[in-house]
Structures are given as C-alpha cells and as structure tokens.
Amino acid sequence: MLSWLNRPVEIEEKLRGRNFVPAHAAYYRQKSGNPLSLILQARTDFLSVWRKRDYTDHVASNKLLGRQLVVVNSPDAIRYVVAKRHENFERKSPQMRRALEYLLGDGLFISDGETWKQRRSLVNDIVHKNRVPAFGPVMEQTAGELVQRWSSLGAGAEVNVLHEMAGLTAEIISRSVFGNNLGKDSADAVTDSFTSYQALIDSINIGYFLGFDEGLPVLRTPSLRRSVKRIHQIIDKVVEDHLAGRGDHNSMVELLIRRQQKNPELNLDMVALRNEAATIFMAGHETTAATLTWAWYLLSKARWVEKEIHAEIKRVCGKRAPTIDDVPQLEWCRAVIEETLRLYPPVPILARQTKEADRIGDIDVKPASLVLIVPWILHRTASLFEKPHHFLPQRFLDGKRPIPYSYVPFAAGPRVCPGLQFGLTEAILCLAILAQRFVVRVPDEHKVEPQCRLTLRPKGGLPVTLHPRR
User: pTM of the entire structure?
Assistant: First the structure.
C-alpha cells in the first residue's frame, strides 16, 4: 500500500580477508530541515534515517511536525531513563502500542501502570532463569527434529532459513509455554501470518506527529484481520487444549493458571490469559528466530569464526549432540550470539512516551514527547565498541563485557525482557546443535538487507543452502 512513497535504502557490506563489515544501512545524507523526506525514509526503514553524528555518545533533541523527539545514545542517560526515572518513561510509544494492540491486546509488552506491574511479576516468575534448565529437553528434542528434517532434504538443499528458524522457535515456545506440539502446519501459519502482519503495519503513526498524543488506531484492513485471526485461532486452540487437560502440567501456561487460582485479583480471564500467552509466544519465538537467522548469515561470511565454533563443539561434545548442560562451555557459540545481538538487535528501537516534563542530560523534555533509545546506533557507537560495524565475536570472550547500559539487546531496567535467559540459552543451544551437523551458506549473489519493521529481519527472508558436515 502506497509503495510509491517508499525511499531507497543504501546498504553497505565489506569482506576483505578476516575483516568483515556485515550488511547495514549507510549513513543518512539528505539535507536537514525536510521533515517529509525524513518521515518517508523512516516509513521505508527506520534504520536508514541516522546520520554519522548520531552514532556518538550523546543526547539530542529535535522536532518533527511539532512533536519533540529525544534520542538518548549515552549509557549514563539511558540508565536515567530506564532505571532511575523508569516510571516517567515506562510507557511504550503510541506507534508500538497501536501497532501491537490488535495482536496482543493488553499483553505485558505494551501494557503499563498497574496492569504492567501485576503481569510483570507473574510472567517474570514463569520464565525466570532458574526455570530455564527444565526446558532444555524441549529445546534439544525440537532442534534434533529439525536436524532430521534437514538431513532428509539432501546435500545442497535450498531453504529460507528465517522461515526455518521461525518454525523451530515457534515449536519450542509452544511446547514450553503450552506443553503442546504445535505441528509444522501451525508453526508455518504463525510464521507466515506474523510476516504478513509486520509488512502491513506502518513504521510511522503519522497521527502522533500531527498532534494526537495517543496516535491513531491502525486501519484494520481485511489482510490484517486475516493475519491476526490465523494467529489467534492457533493460540486459542493450544490454550483451550491445555485447559481441557491435553497439555503438559509443567508448562508455563499451567503456572499462569495456578497463579490466577491463588491470586484472583490478577483478573486473568480467558482474554487476558490469551493476551499474555500471545505475548510470550510472539516475543519468545520471533526474537530468537531473527537472532539465529542473522547468526547464520554472519557465519556464512566469516568462515574463520565458523571454524572456531565447529572446533569448540567437537571439543566440548565430541560426536554426541549438544545439550543444555554444555551451554556454559560453548563460549564461542555464546560470543557469536551476543555479537549477533549487538549488530542486529531483534528490537532495534526502544521508544518511550514521556509522562511528565523531565530533563535528560542537558535536554529539557516535554510531556508526551518521544524518547528513543536505539540499540542499532548505540551498539555501533565507536567510543563504546572498537570497530563498531565489524563482526568480532571475540569482544565477548574471556570474560569481556560491554560497559553497563551500552549493550541493551533485551532492553534494560525494570522493563528488561523477562525471557532474556530463556532466549539466550535457546539461541546458543540451537546454534550448536545445527552447526554440529550442517554448514549453512548464503548464496554469494544474494544481497542481504536489514529491515526494521516491528522487529529486525533480513528483507525477504534469507535464502541459504544446507550442506551436511561429515
């Protein structure tokens, strides 16, 4: 819709020897003072609107059609926004709330206030890091099933690895959350429907910039309604199956139900339960799928890194398949995933709406202003990361860690992703299980283009060929 308004996005990628600069949007070079051009560029892709000066440690304020925008790209200022003054900046932007409310209702990801406080502690307990080992067998079995399916395709098989990773992580989250096997058809339906949903949601809620503090509702076109209906039908069925006793009693949903029974004031009726289940399901599978997809791209190009993880898997696991108990020893696999999250954070823009007037750094911020923390530019700021556009997993080895609030792929502060450890462990383990058995190659002629919609994906997916390892 309105495709003629789209603007071109210049992508840069360099590979010389062991110097690999993965695909990223070039610096924005249009003249200042043209808000329409900037809006159209952001609508096409939000990653392509940042100038070279934006990739510095600073706080900046601008106006766009009368709305104040504050870009917070300094660790100290980020700490102020997400931790010290969290309650004044807890509310997601109208763009994000409007974009996801049709799909997730009042789910944790876009809720705030008392609803958020109640649901946060509930979900936090369910996906707590101490529970992650219990889900290890689910991750191992599901990834093992994908190994078998890939093996049946034969050497050189062509697949869209984004679609494959989305199916894998959808199945894992379904078995973990609901205790049900989702099945390939349903996993594919969720994957396809969310891909369609992202494509149909505009990157800019123009009503917000025209003066509507809550933005304008998303136009629910027939295509959008079909996408949401397919997702809701699948999630409703697995919830209903669980309530009817056809699910695992150790699943996350069972914990939700038990908590509601003990604490009726939570008001988790069927709709609220579906909203939280949908939030855990969509956030849990989409972000990890995107991370694994980007990791395959990076390893396909940086084959010297691929050799390191192959050697590590052999050293740690021998010929047996990796298990969740091996994850602490898979240091290179972890470093690859963490560096992937630096270069391609699944949610590359964390947008908040100011409740009351405030001051961030030396910038006075008005009520209802848009405050942007942008992991995409933060993680590529030269004063925080050496060679920031390069793929260098070793920056996460030997106990090295970025300075606090300079690396926020899962957000930070009270609104840090509650499933952080689940997703990180899942990504490391699935990468190890699949890399042990396959080499994944992106065709040389394929142009990889990062695209930011609701999440950060390769535009059009990522075609690859699969090559069994001996």
Answer: 0.91
